[in-house]
Design brief:
This protein is an alpha/beta fold. It is built from 12 helices and 12 strands. It has helices spanning 4-17, 64-69, 95-102, 121-130, 142-151, 184-190, 194-201, 210-232, 245-258, 279-304, 371-382, 387-391, and strands at 42-49, 58-59, 82-83, 89-90, 106-113, 160-162, 179-180, 265-271, 310-316, 336-342, 349-350, 369-370. Strands 1, 5, 6, 7, 8, 9, 10, 11 and 12 form a 9-stranded mixed beta sheet that branches. Strands 2-4-3 form a 3-stranded antiparallel beta sheet. A hairpin with a 5-residue loop joins strand 3 (82-83) and strand 4. The radius of gyration is 22 Å and the shape is globular.
Length: 402
């Protein structure tokens, strides 16, 4: 038998992969309804870390106040702006997203935010990932609570997958959370060590103890790793993705989806958007990566017939100040745009008014739409979940969106 000391060494690995809930909860808690079918729909969340400049992403190129606030940083139509509607256009680097927009697969929400916004990267990201208000602090994420509410007792930790080394707060529930992995192959290799494999074969005792629960966690981890690895062999993408970490993450996500992995939520990130200095080139590179990656992702899913059942939500923790700074960059701001992408969108295009650059809050955009209204819409109308229970309050949903 494995010794307790050896086991606790291995348990460090488990704690990074699966959530260990409070031991006040019994392992044999009363079962709740299993994960709802929701017509086979899945959600892919794309996080733009660092605070993407929304005004140079969805550009108000017909507004003179935009160029007045950004005399050198403002992007002019002759630079290749991809014209949308309502005096707005995509950044010149977003060619493939413009193509998807023209096909009716993209929706743009302007000035999304929340009351009393926070300009700290860490705090604002916590607010977006947890779905909390600015005046409250939650230790669980909105997607983790979705997993809790729909599949509390089930033994399918891969119902939520984050393609990364670590798991975001967004994916952590009270009783369940998703899996963090860079690739199914590497994840499987990680669980094939002699000690971990031996623990996975052993049965925990009947008592409800910390060690017993960790044995169960490790067994679930090994089982999930094997499932994802075997399923991932079903489909290997032939689509060309950007040769970047973000491109690789999207390719892995597409391969898991097209292989038939039974996951409802996927999470990927693209970082580097904290553009205080010389923003234009840096942001253009990142937005090009975003656009090319999502274009390839959509192509991959369309070829496999999975695009109509997939919704992509793109967000950043905050936008940037309206005026450029002295370093030809932008500083931390507030409200920002949110993009939705998918073959099942019922409303497409620009869904609300362009940012109001005349009515600012101390140089920052005022939010038009609470981000939790977007979450409520996705949870209730797309995933068919109880949005009020998950978000802890009622938020007006966007009618007829999905």
């Amino acid at each position: 038998m494995t010794t307790r000391r050896d086991f606790l060494k291995a348990s460090t690995l488990a704690s990074t992969l699966l959530f260990v809930p409070s031991f006040l909860h019994r392992l044999d808690a009363h079962a709740l309804p299993s994960l709802r079918d929701a017509a086979g729909r899945r959600l892919v969340v794309v996080q733009l870390s660092g605070g993407n400049d929304g005004l140079n992403t969805v550009i108000p190129f017909e507004d003179d106040l935009y160029f007045k606030a950004r005399p050198t940083l403002g992007i002019r139509p002759q630079s290749g702006i991809h014209t949308l509607d309502k005096g707005l256009g995509f950044n010149p680097a977003m060619r493939r997203l413009k193509g998807l927009y023209d096909q009716g697969h993209v929706a743009v929400l302007n000035s999304v935010g929340y009351p009393n916004p926070d300009r700290s990267h860490f705090r604002s990201m916590d607010i977006w990932q947890s779905g909390s208000g600015a005046d409250e602090s939650l230790t669980t994420g909105w997607l983790g609570r979705y997993l809790d509410s729909n599949c509390a007792p089930c033994t399918l930790p891969y119902n939520g997958v984050e393609v990364d080394d670590t798991l975001s707060l967004a994916m952590k529930g009270l009783q369940r959370k998703g899996l963090a992995l860079k690739s199914p192959e590497k994840f499987h290799q990680l669980t094939q060590g002699r000690l971990l494999a031996k623990i996975g074969r052993e049965q925990p005792g009947s008592s409800i103890s910390e060690v017993d629960y960790l044995y169960k966690t490790l067994a679930e981890t090994a089982s999930s790793a094997d499932y994802l690895y075997q399923k991932s062999k079903v489909y290997k993408s032939a689509v060309t993705y950007p040769n970047s970490e973000f491109g690789k993450s999207l390719k892995t996500t597409a391969e898991l989806i097209n292989s038939g992995v039974e996951s409802r939520v996927f999470y990927v990130s693209l970082s580097g958007f904290d553009t205080h200095v010389r923003q234009q080139e840096q942001q253009a590179r990142l937005l090009g990566d975003l656009s090319e990656g999502l274009g390839s992702f959509a192509e991959d899913l369309q070829k496999a017939g999975n695009f109509d059942d997939t919704l992509v939500l793109v967000f950043s923790e905050f936008g940037r100040r309206v005026s450029q700074n002295a370093s030809n960059g932008t500083d931390h701001g507030t409200a920002n745009n949110v993009l939705l992408l998918g073959g099942g969108l019922r409303r497409q295009g620009i869904l609300n008014n362009a940012p109001n650059l005349q009515n600012l809050d101390a140089g920052d955009l005022k939010y038009q739409l609470d981000f939790r209204s977007v979450y409520a819409t996705v949870l209730h109308d797309w995933l068919q979940a109880d949005d009020q229970a998950i978000l802890g309050s009622s938020f007006e949903r966007l009618k007829g969106l999905v």
